[in-house]
Amino acid sequence: MDLTTASPLPAPSTQASHVYDRLREDLLSGRLAPSRKLQMRFLMEAYQTGQTPLREALNRLTADGLVEVREQRGFYVKDVSRSELAELTKTRCWVEALALRESMAASTPGWEEQLVLAHHRLSRVPRSLSATEFEDNPEWEKLHRIYHRTLIGQCGSQSLIAFCGQLADQLYRYRRLSIGKAFPSRHVGDEHAAIMDAVLSGDCDLAVKLLTAHYQRTADVILQDEAIFPELRGEAARS
């Protein structure tokens, strides 16, 4: 091989970041199913990477709450449970309520314009790619995340925003697993508009109440999804 013309290999840190991004997407989308063992050899082949950057990526995903390490057994996709979903939802409601209150206290015309624009762009994109059956729209998901991040973006704490983002990622995994049931019957556009209107009118208590109800309504639907919580069938049979 002519070393003067060969393409250089990515730096280890760059390679680890690339693997992290790909793994994270596959974890959030559900392509890597909950409780699945993440075998190193399989991952090295699937993601075309070495063991060192792969371990670095897995350790970062463990810190994100998407992967777990089981003693003497290696890495696994984080399992799902109704109790975790309820806890994550409650925590997100707490911290985003704080972040939204702080954002509204520090409101500026520029931030309000950003919120109106984020909502406008979201409202113009269909939730489903199909008009006859529910088909998730990735563009809607991207704009949805931007809208919610804008709501809390004026809070003045990057650490708080980052923590809110981490909770959103963990809850997004649940939404993806239950997406066909959780959203076709919801009028989420009306919910988003009502939250924005409360923010723009300066009614902090109402804005927080609507945001909390928005998250809780999603959780309540997913918590009753037998496809991801099969134990519900047994509970129904016993009752």
What's the short version?
By secondary structure, the protein is mainly alpha-helical. The chain contains eleven helices and two strands; from the N terminus they run H-H-H-E-E-H-H-H-H-H-H-H-H. It has helices spanning 12-29, 40-46, 51-63, 82-105, 109-123, 138-152, 158-177, 179-182, 188-200, 204-223, 231-238, and strands at residues 67-70, 74-77.
Explain the overall architecture.
The protein has 239 residues and is mainly alpha-helical. The chain has eleven helices and two strands, in the order H-H-H-E-E-H-H-H-H-H-H-H-H. The chain has helices at 12-29, 40-46, 51-63, 82-105, 109-123, 138-152, 158-177, 179-182, 188-200, 204-223, 231-238, and strands at residues 67-70, 74-77. A two-stranded antiparallel ribbon has the order 1-2. A hairpin with a 3-residue loop joins strand 1 (67-70) and strand 2 (74-77). The radius of gyration is 20 Å and the shape is globular. 26% of the residues are buried. Residues 1-10 have low confidence and may be disordered.
